[in-house]
Amino acid sequence: MNKIRNFAITPENSIYGTGKRKEAIARVWLVKDKPEARIVKAKGSNKEWNVQDYFQRESLINKVVFPLKITGLDEKFGIYATVVGGGVSAQAEAVMYGVAKALLKYNPELRTQLKKAGLLVRDAREKERKKYAQMGARAKYRWSKR
Fold it and tell me: Crossing angle of helices 88-106/58-71, nearest 10°?
């Protein structure tokens, strides 16, 4: 088991929020006074990664810390998140929504800032299911008259 977390998560030093996007679910804790701690734990692998190592793309890393940056609290909180399901992009957005919900619990006055940035409305788009007698969700098999 690969652990890089060197702090305990307790109700006194952390705030919890849940984020969802597509098939991804993120459980997020904002850890007070640990701004350098930005850790993601993927379920199933029992490994912990730094946000930079796990998400790798700069755009995804920026998404994860976006709620902290727009509220100006990026120097006050660290992030610890467990993610399960979905792809890396969906997981990054799920963490983003979880961070926004946790910030709202921390200070309800941040609601206007977070709402204006579109972080309080879950992106509900899901994958459409494949239908029977079809190639996919929308694509049909080619029809031939003869």
Answer: 10
